[in-house]
Design a protein that fits this description.
The protein has 380 residues and is of the alpha+beta class. The chain has 2 domains: 97 residues, no CATH class; 213 residues, MetI-like (MetI-like fold), CATH 1.10.3720.10. The protein contains 14 helices and 4 strands. It has a 4-stranded antiparallel sheet. α5 runs antiparallel to α6 and α9 packs antiparallel against α10. The two termini are 41 Å apart.
Length: 380
């Protein structure tokens, strides 16, 4: 009689290894793994990081002074070339440009000047600036030597380099989203928290206040509040005022989310245990309720930043937000209000393209974070 030997299952497959790793992983690890599985969100996160790096190191990235006027108004974009009459070469270059005037239509046009060839170099010397406000240098990421000019996105009606102005405009347009969302976060958590946790009369007052704010049309309300800013304010104070105005309006959506979560969690066992243990109301909210849905708040914030960017761009485009000499994407798009200018220089719409890219990237990252906020749906 043969003896039956039990067969032991050895978890040597990739599926079993992944399951074992999931069982011992923390919640933050599960969220990170699920977020990295969202390829579009990861790619969008890389795009956002690159945009903020360009904004932070704008003086280094921009090849020209954004306020410098050249003698080439409405010059078209210059694409780097690799092929000359002699053949292909590895180092990119651009030809010089020369303007000519049509005496019948008085329209200025530009043609490449093949007699002047300017190679493109990395880490070139140019105009002086102060990096981070205190490091004085003249080093730039790329540019043309020997007196050449490189206009990757063309020039505007005053001959200023559009690419350099877009780089500097990213500072204001991207930072106003972060600052505005941070202020809106504080207001949303505060009013939404007390509304959902205490309920009763407090909840009714806060909710009626939110409904009143949400009943106003957004753009007319923004325009009215922005127009109330004193006209003699400096650009810095106008920037701060626009940020505060956008924050005062944008917190209502987050407050509704926080209120709903507090209403569903305030009677849970861990909250009752903390209350019986002598914890104060502020500590219960800060240490127990908010961390329980912090991932949802992060996802909501990521989806709120594009709204702030679009709000600033809309106000500045309409002329009631930021105004020159401040450089933002909305201010740059004011040049595109004239259909004649757009017909002559369609490259003035490049700031709008950057707005679309930034908004889409933030939305995709927000979708990835929202999916990762519930990591246990696939933890099997």
């Amino acid at each position: 009689m043969t003896e039956t030997v039990p067969i032991k299952h050895v978890p040597n497959s990739e599926v079993d290894a992944a399951k074992e790793r999931t069982y011992v992983a923390s919640q933050w690890q599960l969220m990170w793994w699920k977020f990295t599985n969202h390829k579009l969100a990861v790619f969008s996160a890389i795009v956002i990081i690159l945009l903020y790096l360009v904004a932070i190191f704008g003086d280094f990235v921009a090849p020209h002074d954004p306020l410098l006027r050249s003698g080439h108004p409405f010059a078209p974009p210059q694409l780097p070339r690799f092929r000359t009459e002699e053949g292909f070469q590895l180092r990119p270059f651009v030809y010089g440009i020369k303007s000519q005037m049509d005496m019948k239509t008085f329209k200025r046009s530009y043609v490449p000047d093949t007699s002047k060839k300017y190679p493109i170099h990395f880490f070139v010397r140019g105009h002086k600036y102060k990096l981070f406000g205190f490091i004085e240098t003249d080093l730039h990421l790329f540019g043309c030597g020997d007196g050449g000019a490189l206009y990757l996105m063309g020039t505007d009606q005053l001959g200023r380099d559009v690419f350099s102005r877009v780089v500097f405009g990213a500072r204001v347009s991207l930072s106003i989203g972060l600052i505005g969302v941070f202020l809106g976060l504080l207001l949303g958590i505060f009013f939404g928290g007390i509304s959902g946790y205490f309920g009763g009369l407090t909840d009714m007052i806060v909710q009626r206040m939110i409904e009143i704010l949400r009943s106003f049309p957004s753009i007319p309300l923004w325009m009215a509040l922005a127009a109330a800013l004193p006209p003699d304010w400096s650009p810095l104070f106008v920037y701060f005022g626009i940020t505060v105005i956008l924050s005062l309006i944008s917190w209502t959506g987050l407050a509704r989310v926080v209120r709903g979560r507090f209403l569903s969690l305030r009677n849970e066992d861990f909250v009752l245990a903390a209350r019986l243990g002598g914890a104060s109301e502020a500590r219960i909210i800060r240490k127990h309720l908010l961390p329980s849905f912090a991932s949802h708040i992060i996802a909501s914030l990521t989806l709120s930043i594009p709204s702030m960017i679009l709000a600033e761009t809309s106000l500045s485009f309409l002329g009631v937000g930021l105004r020159p000499p401040v450089i933002s994407w909305g201010v740059l798009l004011q040049d595109a209000q004239n259909i004649h200018a757009v017909a002559m220089a369609p490259w003035l719409m490049f700031p709008g393209l950057l707005v679309v890219i930034a908004v889409l990237a933030f939305n995709f990252v927000g979708d990835g974070l929202r999916d990762a906020a519930d990591p246990y749906t696939t933890a099997t």
